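ok trying this again, last paste got cut off
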Amino acid sequence: MELTPNMHAFLWTSPRINNCNTYLIRSKEKNILIDPGHAAYFDHVREGLSRLSLPLGDIDLVIGTHAHPDHIEAVQLFEGTQALFAMHTAEWELVQEMAPFLEASMNIDLARFTPDFFLTEGELKIGEARLDVYHTPGHSPGAVTLYWPEQKALFAGDLIFKDGLGRSDLPGGSGSQLKDSIRRMAELDADWLLPGHGEIVSGEAAVKANFEQVERVWFGYI
């Protein structure tokens, strides 16, 4: 789905199978893929990229907003390509702490998910694209939200959704941090709220209203 000429969404719409939304940022120099999702369900992303005449080898950077398998497992499909992989250092620390469980119960080889570099709060330049990285813990300790000022686009991962918010009861989660992170992101000037699951919210007024509704309806439960 083309949102703007340089921004595309590959939305996961199955009501029965858990996977995440994936987003593509294009520029003349670099292509960035955000949250590639589960490896087993990556075909819908691959097909979307193909329609844009983009093979996997043309992706320069894969970013994980956080390290849950439904967001980053497909990064292993980029082995042997030029793509680099990045996530927040606090998220990688959590992954390493959970390594025995992940390797034993999910047969995950963590070596295939090692970041090439770590995200830190502040500006991230990839070619012509400039993203602002915000550390937004709550759903997970190293979760990040990416803001693209050029498009006023907020890539929220599992921080906030249309009419909802991320869970805080998973390992490393925190309800108080989740609320603080959502309030902080609500202050940004955004025309696009691009969540890790569910529908996109577009338009400044609609994005603002969604933040207000989520705080009003859900903050009392976390």
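PB: full thing came through this time. The longest helix spans residues 204-218.
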